[in-house]
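Tokenised fold entry reproduced for absentees:

. . .
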Amino acid sequence: MLKYIKKYWFFCLLAPMFMVGEVAMDLIQPDMMADIVDKGVLQGDFSLIVNVGVRMILMVIIGGIFGILCGVFANIAAQGFGNDLRKDLFGKIMHLSFQQTDKISTGSLVTRLTNDVTQVQNMVMMLVRGFVRNTVMFIGGIFMLYRQSPRFALIAACGLPFVVIAVTFFLRKTSPLFARVQRKLDGINHIMQETVAGARVVKAYVKEEYELGRFDDANDELCTENLRVQSLLAFMSPCMNIVLNLCVVAVIIVGGFTVKTDGGITPGNIMAAITYLAQILHGITFMANIFQTFSRAKASADRINEVLRSPDIITDGAQTPNPATKPLSVQERGTVEFRAVSFAYPGSEDHKVLENLSFKVEQGQTLAIIGSTGSGKSSLVHLIPRFYDVIEGEVLVDGINVKDYNLKDLRDKIAIVLQKAELYSRSIEENIRWSRKDADPLDIKKAAQIAHADDFICSKSYGYYTPVSEGGHSLSGGQKQRISIARAILKEHEILILDDSTSALDLKTEASLYQALNKEHPNVTKIIIAQRISSIRNADRILVLDNGTVSAIGTHEELLAQSEIYKDIYNSQLKEGGIGK
């Protein structure tokens, strides 16, 4: 975390300096009060009382100004630190591979970006302000106590080891528990995220009580862990208070005895000594809270660092110059080729999802992919933009291995519409424009017309500026899919991938969409995953996947003649439904 503090080193230096000034004002006042008692009250010198009292008031004002300035500079450092850390953490999350985000749940990432960063930010504030204040107060209090009488300082020195032992014991007990508390908070956020995202399913199956029970269980676990930590910490402050209050009693006894016998200590000295002990007590108690905050922040910092230090699994290619700048012939652009490709998801290397795939799609061609559920269709297209890497073989785009590309250059060539249409809480226009910020309104309208979204958008009260609710719940499934397709069309791309993204469209709309795509973007290579034969029968080539292998590849007519799997799918969907070839 130190590199995030370095940027604000000047404020981290100013804040403690002003804090030292504030503490100095606080430390001088008990000594001045002793003068008021011994030289003013006991000797009847009213002018001294007024003079010292006025000086004390001025010191309080100066100390207050120092304290305010310290707070301002400490807040600038802590808030700036939190802002920079949160930005970098979010940036890292955005660059995590699917493999890494699958490992760390969404709820956990939300907790780390919010609560964990706040805990570390609070620690910075404590260190810059509270730690300095109480350290100086402690050292200064001991020194001023010694000035009143070495005996008082010796009493404090005898009590301090017990305080240190108590603080160390409780913090060692609680430190591991803070990590468990944060993990329980992950669980709360995970359940909340799942339940809100799936609210319609919850209501459809009348599972509100079940989800309430799940949340209650997770919340009870969090409460139990918090109570366990707080119960231990509840003993720490009383233990320190007992020790330090015994020191106060000892000061009163020793001071009273000394005043009575040799007069080496005055009543003002005793009063000042008690005040200094109270300051030391307050300082140590606050230091215990700082150590508690530090323990919790340490657990949070470890969780943040786990994300920040995660190695980039999908990295830019090492080839120089960048293959994206390599001159390409017209025929090379937009080609996609698989050469003996095998793939397994990380952690399941012994179970290959795809095995020994080889095929090539030329520029402007339409390749359709069909197969049973779980045959590896989505896994196949995820390899083209390098959402995952192959374990064997090569995937080539424009004749170049995708591993040799700069990731941005590779993905700039590809527009992809995934199975689930993801929309954001913005207007329809902003959702479409999201893929190309410099697009003008005519480009956006044209993309929507190709995607057959323009009619329903214009029918809405605010047209393209109609707000979209979170997750697109204010739109139907087909409307969300068409907006997502319009967004992909608007992007300047060589390859368009539609991963079963027309499933909510009727057959007529779907057919019109594909006709418009071929007419308006004839040179764009199209890879379409679909479940319906009617959606893909006009494709240039159709690839039939069976358990991760290529069962057959050809045109619709060729597959009807050669592929039993394709023929079975055709018969079940079309022929038996009364629709001929």
